[in-house]
Amino acid sequence: MSDKQQADASLPNPVIPGFHPDPSICRVGDDYYVVCSSFEYFPGIPVFHSRDLFHWTQIGNALDRPEQLRLPADTPASGGIYAPTLRHHDGRFWLIVTNVTEGEGNLLFTATDPAGPWSDPIRLSEVPGIDPDLAWDEDGTCWCTIAGVSQVRIDPHTGEAFGPPRKLWSGAPGAKAPEAPHLYRIGDYWYLLIAEGGTERCHGVSIARGRTPAGPFEPCPDNPVLTHRGTDEPIQNTGHADLVQGPDGSWWLALLGVRPRGGTPGWHVLGRETFVAPVEWVDGWPVVGKVTSELPAPAWPLVPGPAEAVRDDFDLSELRPKWISLRDRPAELCTTKERAGWLTLRARGGSLDEPDVVFVGRRQQHLACEARTRIDPAEGRGGLAVRLDEEHHYEIEASEGEVRVLSRVGPLRTVVGSLAVPAGPVVLGVRIAPTPPRDARTGPDTVTLGVAEPDGTFTALGALDGRYLSTEVAGGFTGRVIGMYAATGTVHFDWFDYAQSNS
Ligand code: 6LW
After folding, report:
1. Is residue 195 in contact with ligand 1, taking CB distance under 6 Å?
2. 30 lies in some domain
3. Which of 296, 327, 343 is the C-terminal boundary of a domain?
4. CATH number of the domain that residue 123 is part of
5. Of these residues, 22, 196, 445, 465, which one is catalytic?
6. Closest to 117 in 3D by CA, of 134, 98, 92
7. Domain count along the chain
8. Where is the domain boundary, 273, 296, 319?
């Protein structure tokens, strides 16, 4: 791209679309890394790399071994892994995170390469609460700051805490949920950045500063420094942020936001996504620019990553990092090694209504998109699903000779449609399209499930209102994941296509 072309270009925001909440960002030289929460999914904590702050490529998942990530079968949807912080100190990457599963709590991991491998967990059994942050003083003291907002000195090598956490700051009087603290030394001050107001429409970011990492902290007179509460901005719930410097020394926030659509009250279906926003410093306080869906291209060179292939042929011995499963992924139930070039899933009893369903999916990352998969159901029953949680999913399921579209919304399970098909492999598809505005009750999008014929025609068996697979209906902290599952027996998947569509 020429300088002139770049100056005229605008770049899409969210920079990491789809269910990628609670971003923590870390710069090391010319490289940037982001990690996000992953809740009940395994592997956990997606790790992204960028050289320009705008183009991000997933390079791994930090927690990809059962010893690092314990998610028992009774882990509820939106349980598990919350809000990591990623930092680089003393030649190593440090990742601190909460697994809200009983007996887990706050855990610390280290790596020399953020793509992995990451260490086994160091347990912080004396540090309660969620949203842990790590910061090191000039003398090497390590401070762990948690939601509330409280702080305790720790030994990051052993997990030992020196005394009980001490309350630091509660944010704006009356604002609920002071959380997501991040502590930084910038210039002459230590800055304590927090989120407050809850992760819904009232979410916001506030900041305080002090002369030492332990305070006392003086709140910014212009708090919250970022919120979209009470506005008609298309990006809502903005909060849970982390500060970083761009390649030219400019300042930026990585933050979460959502894109509600449809009538009132608005439904967001992709979960909380990772956005960036520019920051300027005025009188020693950050002033956050607008969080918009397009940002002007920066002055520094853009470094786009490799374009994601539409098709995954399951031709590698391991699944690519974008693929996530529910709670665990035993090799004997999920493998690309059994039938060359196919993904084999073996059911262990549960359907998508059950927490132990054998599922492999990827985040829905575009408001308009299409996914297809070719399934061989000769030895079992399985299909293609759009999932929010056990009680909110739509799927198209194949057994030998028949395809059915099923919907689960709250306590209701419905067979939406069915079709007799010839025996043998069949291509299942889902098309997701934003709904044109009609009236105050218009849903966010329509999810159409059907069969793709060899001649390219698509036979729709059900067109369903997407609001029932939204966070406003289902609740929780995640977003839609589209993927393959086994309901009974063994099913094989030849390939999986996912692409953004135009509508
Ligand atoms: C996270 C909290 C939050 O721990 O949501 O948006 C919680 N902020 O900081 C789960 O993602």
Report:
1. yes
2. yes
3. 296
4. 2.115.10.20
5. 22
6. 92
7. 2
8. 296
- The protein residue with its alpha carbon nearest to ligand 1, atom 3, reads 199
Judgement on whether residues 68 and 124 belong to the same structural domain of the protein: yes
Specify whether 22 is catalytic: yes
Indicate which atom in ligand 1 lies nearest the CA of residue 83: 4
Compute how many other C-beta atoms are within 10 angstroms of the C-beta atom of residue 221. 7
Judge if 370 and 433 occupy the same domain: yes
Whether 171 is covered by a domain: the verdict is no
Q: Are residues 409 and 262 in the same domain?
A: no
Cβ contact 478:358 at 8 Å? no
Are 242 and 332 contained in the same domain? no
CA of 221 to the centre of ligand 1 (A): 25
Residue ID of nearest Cα to ligand 1 atom 5: 199
In whole angstroms, how large is the CA radius of gyration of the chain? 23
From 22, 101, 145, 227, the mutation candidate for ligand 1 (largest count of ligand atoms within 8 A of CB) is 22
In a domain, 357, yes or no: yes
Cβ density class 307-337: b for 16+ within 10 Å, e for less: eeeeebebeeeebebbbbbbbbbeeebbbbe
- Residues 126 and 161: beta-carbon distance below 8 Å: yes
CB 119 within 8 A of CB 110: yes
Q: Which domain holds residue 156?
A: 3-166+230-296
Catalytic residue among 179, 196, 242, 376: 179
Pocket test for ligand 1, best of 81, 145, 240, 268 (most atoms within 8 A of CB): 240
Query: Is 423 a member of any domain?
Result: yes
* Residues 125, 243 within the same domain: yes
Whether residues 105 and 251 fall in one domain: yes
Digits of tens for pLDDT over the chain (503 positions)?
566 666 667 999 999 999 999 999 999 999 999 999 999 999 999 999 999 999 999 999 999 999 999 999 999 999 999 999 999 999 999 999 999 999 999 999 999 999 999 999 999 999 999 999 999 999 999 999 999 999 999 999 999 999 999 999 999 888 999 999 999 999 999 999 999 999 999 999 999 999 999 999 999 999 999 999 999 999 999 999 999 999 999 999 999 999 999 999 999 999 999 999 999 999 999 999 999 999 999 999 999 999 999 999 999 999 999 999 999 999 999 999 999 999 999 999 889 999 999 999 999 999 999 999 999 999 999 999 999 999 999 999 999 999 999 999 999 999 999 999 999 999 999 999 999 999 999 999 999 999 998 888 999 999 999 999 999 999 999 999 999 999 999 999 999 999 999 86
Helices (H), 26-143: none
